Automatic annotation (TrEMBL):
Gene3D superfamilies membership: Phosphate transport system protein phou homolog 2, domain 2 (1.20.58.220)
Gene name linked to the record: phoU
SUPFAM superfamilies listed in its UniProt record: PhoU-like (SSF109755)
Acetylation recorded as keyword: no
Signal peptide span: none
Gene Ontology cellular component terms for the protein in this record: cytoplasm
Highest taxon, organism lineage: Bacteria
Domain (PhoU): residue spans on this chain: 17-103, 120-204
Identification of the protein by name: Phosphate-specific transport system accessory protein PhoU
Annotated InterPro entries: PhoU, PhoU-like_sf, PhoU_dom
Length: 229
Protein backbone atom coordinates (compact mmCIF):
# COMPACT_ATOMS: atom_id res chain seq x y z
CA UNK A 1 0.00 0.00 0.00
CA UNK A 2 1.44 3.46 -0.86
CA UNK A 3 2.54 5.40 2.22
CA UNK A 4 0.17 8.30 1.50
CA UNK A 5 -2.83 5.97 1.17
CA UNK A 6 -1.79 4.16 4.35
CA UNK A 7 -1.74 7.46 6.27
CA UNK A 8 -5.11 8.52 4.88
CA UNK A 9 -6.73 5.22 5.85
CA UNK A 10 -5.22 5.35 9.35
CA UNK A 11 -6.67 8.84 9.81
CA UNK A 12 -10.03 7.63 8.54
CA UNK A 13 -9.98 4.74 11.03
CA UNK A 14 -9.41 7.18 13.93
CA UNK A 15 -12.29 9.40 12.78
CA UNK A 16 -14.64 6.41 12.45
CA UNK A 17 -13.69 5.14 15.92
CA UNK A 18 -14.38 8.60 17.35
CA UNK A 19 -17.76 8.71 15.59
CA UNK A 20 -18.56 5.22 16.92
CA UNK A 21 -17.67 6.28 20.48
CA UNK A 22 -19.92 9.37 20.28
CA UNK A 23 -22.81 7.27 18.91
CA UNK A 24 -22.33 4.61 21.60
CA UNK A 25 -22.36 7.25 24.35
CA UNK A 26 -25.55 8.77 22.94
CA UNK A 27 -27.31 5.37 22.98
CA UNK A 28 -26.29 5.00 26.64
CA UNK A 29 -27.60 8.51 27.48
CA UNK A 30 -30.92 7.82 25.71
CA UNK A 31 -31.65 4.64 27.67
CA UNK A 32 -30.45 6.10 30.98
CA UNK A 33 -32.75 9.10 30.49
CA UNK A 34 -35.70 6.67 30.49
CA UNK A 35 -34.53 4.81 33.58
CA UNK A 36 -33.95 8.08 35.48
CA UNK A 37 -36.92 10.00 33.91
CA UNK A 38 -34.31 12.63 33.05
CA UNK A 39 -35.61 15.09 30.42
CA UNK A 40 -32.41 17.13 30.50
CA UNK A 41 -30.34 14.05 29.59
CA UNK A 42 -32.79 13.12 26.80
CA UNK A 43 -32.48 16.63 25.32
CA UNK A 44 -28.69 16.23 25.42
CA UNK A 45 -29.13 13.24 23.07
CA UNK A 46 -30.98 15.47 20.60
CA UNK A 47 -28.20 18.09 20.76
CA UNK A 48 -25.40 15.56 20.19
CA UNK A 49 -27.21 14.09 17.18
CA UNK A 50 -26.42 17.24 15.18
CA UNK A 51 -22.72 16.62 15.91
CA UNK A 52 -23.11 12.97 14.79
CA UNK A 53 -24.71 14.06 11.50
CA UNK A 54 -21.82 16.47 10.86
CA UNK A 55 -19.21 13.77 11.59
CA UNK A 56 -21.02 11.30 9.34
CA UNK A 57 -20.83 13.71 6.41
CA UNK A 58 -17.12 14.35 7.07
CA UNK A 59 -16.32 10.61 7.08
CA UNK A 60 -18.23 10.13 3.83
CA UNK A 61 -16.38 13.02 2.20
CA UNK A 62 -13.03 11.61 3.39
CA UNK A 63 -13.86 8.18 1.92
CA UNK A 64 -14.85 9.68 -1.44
CA UNK A 65 -11.75 11.86 -1.49
CA UNK A 66 -9.46 8.88 -0.84
CA UNK A 67 -11.23 6.86 -3.53
CA UNK A 68 -10.93 9.66 -6.08
CA UNK A 69 -7.31 10.60 -5.41
CA UNK A 70 -5.79 7.15 -4.82
CA UNK A 71 -7.96 4.78 -6.87
CA UNK A 72 -7.33 1.87 -4.43
CA UNK A 73 -7.84 -1.77 -5.45
CA UNK A 74 -8.43 -5.17 -3.77
CA UNK A 75 -8.74 -5.10 0.03
CA UNK A 76 -8.13 -1.33 0.24
CA UNK A 77 -11.09 -0.73 -2.06
CA UNK A 78 -13.30 -3.18 -0.12
CA UNK A 79 -12.22 -1.53 3.15
CA UNK A 80 -13.25 1.94 1.96
CA UNK A 81 -16.59 0.67 0.65
CA UNK A 82 -17.18 -1.01 4.03
CA UNK A 83 -16.33 2.30 5.73
CA UNK A 84 -18.99 4.08 3.68
CA UNK A 85 -21.60 1.50 4.68
CA UNK A 86 -20.47 1.59 8.31
CA UNK A 87 -20.75 5.39 8.29
CA UNK A 88 -24.39 5.08 7.23
CA UNK A 89 -25.07 2.41 9.88
CA UNK A 90 -23.63 4.67 12.61
CA UNK A 91 -25.77 7.61 11.47
CA UNK A 92 -28.88 5.39 11.61
CA UNK A 93 -27.93 4.20 15.09
CA UNK A 94 -27.68 7.88 16.08
CA UNK A 95 -31.21 8.43 14.74
CA UNK A 96 -32.49 5.47 16.77
CA UNK A 97 -30.94 6.98 19.92
CA UNK A 98 -32.91 10.15 19.13
CA UNK A 99 -36.11 8.08 18.79
CA UNK A 100 -35.46 6.58 22.24
CA UNK A 101 -34.79 10.03 23.73
CA UNK A 102 -38.04 11.44 22.29
CA UNK A 103 -39.98 8.55 23.86
CA UNK A 104 -38.09 9.23 27.10
CA UNK A 105 -39.28 12.86 27.13
CA UNK A 106 -42.88 11.72 26.62
CA UNK A 107 -42.63 9.13 29.40
CA UNK A 108 -40.99 11.57 31.82
CA UNK A 109 -43.86 14.03 31.29
CA UNK A 110 -46.48 11.39 32.11
CA UNK A 111 -47.10 9.22 35.20
CA UNK A 112 -45.00 6.04 35.54
CA UNK A 113 -46.60 2.78 34.39
CA UNK A 114 -47.51 0.04 36.86
CA UNK A 115 -44.99 -2.24 35.11
CA UNK A 116 -41.28 -1.42 34.95
CA UNK A 117 -39.02 -2.54 32.12
CA UNK A 118 -35.41 -3.62 32.51
CA UNK A 119 -33.42 -2.29 29.55
CA UNK A 120 -30.02 -2.46 31.24
CA UNK A 121 -29.00 -5.95 30.06
CA UNK A 122 -30.26 -5.32 26.51
CA UNK A 123 -28.45 -1.97 26.36
CA UNK A 124 -25.19 -3.42 27.72
CA UNK A 125 -25.21 -6.27 25.20
CA UNK A 126 -26.18 -3.97 22.31
CA UNK A 127 -23.39 -1.51 23.14
CA UNK A 128 -20.91 -4.43 23.34
CA UNK A 129 -22.01 -5.58 19.86
CA UNK A 130 -21.51 -2.08 18.47
CA UNK A 131 -18.07 -1.72 20.08
CA UNK A 132 -16.94 -5.15 18.85
CA UNK A 133 -18.17 -4.51 15.32
CA UNK A 134 -16.09 -1.31 15.13
CA UNK A 135 -13.02 -3.07 16.56
CA UNK A 136 -13.53 -5.90 14.08
CA UNK A 137 -13.59 -3.48 11.17
CA UNK A 138 -10.63 -1.37 12.20
CA UNK A 139 -8.48 -4.42 13.06
CA UNK A 140 -9.90 -6.65 10.28
CA UNK A 141 -10.71 -9.23 12.98
CA UNK A 142 -13.06 -11.82 11.50
CA UNK A 143 -13.44 -13.76 14.79
CA UNK A 144 -14.71 -10.64 16.54
CA UNK A 145 -17.14 -10.08 13.67
CA UNK A 146 -18.46 -13.63 14.09
CA UNK A 147 -19.04 -12.97 17.82
CA UNK A 148 -21.21 -9.95 16.91
CA UNK A 149 -23.32 -11.99 14.48
CA UNK A 150 -23.71 -14.75 17.09
CA UNK A 151 -24.97 -12.26 19.69
CA UNK A 152 -27.81 -10.91 17.52
CA UNK A 153 -30.21 -13.75 18.33
CA UNK A 154 -29.77 -13.06 22.04
CA UNK A 155 -30.86 -9.43 21.53
CA UNK A 156 -33.86 -10.61 19.48
CA UNK A 157 -34.90 -12.90 22.35
CA UNK A 158 -34.69 -10.09 24.93
CA UNK A 159 -36.70 -7.78 22.66
CA UNK A 160 -39.43 -10.44 22.24
CA UNK A 161 -39.58 -10.85 26.03
CA UNK A 162 -40.03 -7.09 26.59
CA UNK A 163 -42.68 -6.87 23.83
CA UNK A 164 -44.60 -9.77 25.39
CA UNK A 165 -44.32 -8.08 28.80
CA UNK A 166 -45.71 -4.83 27.34
CA UNK A 167 -48.55 -6.62 25.54
CA UNK A 168 -49.60 -8.39 28.75
CA UNK A 169 -49.42 -5.11 30.65
CA UNK A 170 -51.66 -3.38 28.08
CA UNK A 171 -54.33 -6.04 28.68
CA UNK A 172 -54.06 -5.54 32.45
CA UNK A 173 -53.78 -1.73 32.41
CA UNK A 174 -55.52 -0.53 29.20
CA UNK A 175 -55.55 3.08 30.41
CA UNK A 176 -51.73 2.98 30.25
CA UNK A 177 -51.62 1.67 26.67
CA UNK A 178 -49.93 4.75 25.16
CA UNK A 179 -47.09 4.77 27.69
CA UNK A 180 -46.64 0.99 27.47
CA UNK A 181 -46.39 1.20 23.69
CA UNK A 182 -43.60 3.77 24.08
CA UNK A 183 -41.72 1.29 26.28
CA UNK A 184 -42.29 -1.49 23.73
CA UNK A 185 -40.84 0.65 20.95
CA UNK A 186 -37.75 1.45 23.01
CA UNK A 187 -36.96 -2.28 22.95
CA UNK A 188 -37.65 -2.30 19.19
CA UNK A 189 -35.21 0.61 18.66
CA UNK A 190 -32.49 -1.21 20.65
CA UNK A 191 -33.06 -4.34 18.56
CA UNK A 192 -32.60 -2.28 15.39
CA UNK A 193 -29.34 -0.86 16.78
CA UNK A 194 -28.10 -4.44 17.26
CA UNK A 195 -29.10 -5.17 13.64
CA UNK A 196 -26.93 -2.29 12.42
CA UNK A 197 -23.98 -3.61 14.47
CA UNK A 198 -24.56 -7.01 12.82
CA UNK A 199 -24.55 -5.34 9.38
CA UNK A 200 -21.10 -3.93 10.14
CA UNK A 201 -19.84 -7.35 11.30
CA UNK A 202 -21.18 -9.04 8.16
CA UNK A 203 -19.29 -6.50 6.04
CA UNK A 204 -16.09 -7.35 7.92
CA UNK A 205 -16.60 -11.08 7.25
CA UNK A 206 -17.02 -10.30 3.55
CA UNK A 207 -14.08 -7.93 3.43
CA UNK A 208 -11.64 -10.31 5.16
CA UNK A 209 -12.96 -13.70 4.08
CA UNK A 210 -14.63 -12.76 0.79
CA UNK A 211 -17.84 -14.53 1.85
CA UNK A 212 -21.22 -12.80 1.71
CA UNK A 213 -23.18 -13.86 4.82
CA UNK A 214 -25.90 -11.21 4.67
CA UNK A 215 -29.40 -12.80 4.75
CA UNK A 216 -27.88 -16.27 5.30
CA UNK A 217 -26.00 -16.01 8.58
CA UNK A 218 -27.50 -19.27 9.91
CA UNK A 219 -26.01 -21.26 7.01
CA UNK A 220 -22.69 -19.50 7.54
CA UNK A 221 -22.51 -20.58 11.18
CA UNK A 222 -23.51 -24.15 10.36
CA UNK A 223 -20.75 -24.29 7.76
CA UNK A 224 -18.17 -23.06 10.25
CA UNK A 225 -19.39 -25.35 13.04
CA UNK A 226 -20.54 -22.55 15.32
CA UNK A 227 -23.85 -22.09 17.07
CA UNK A 228 -25.68 -18.80 17.25
CA UNK A 229 -26.72 -17.90 20.78
Amino acid sequence: MPIHLHREIDRLKKNVLHLGAVVEENVFRAVKSIEDRDVKLAKKVLEVDAEIDKMEVEVEEDCLKILALNQPVAIDLRFLIAMLKLDNDLERIGDLAVNIAERSIYLANNPPTNVSFEYREMTRKTEAMLRKSLDALVNLNIELAREVCAADDEIDAIERKIVEQAQEAIKKYPDEADRLLHHMFVARHLERIADHATNIAEDVIYMVGGEIVRHRVVNYFQKHGRNRQ
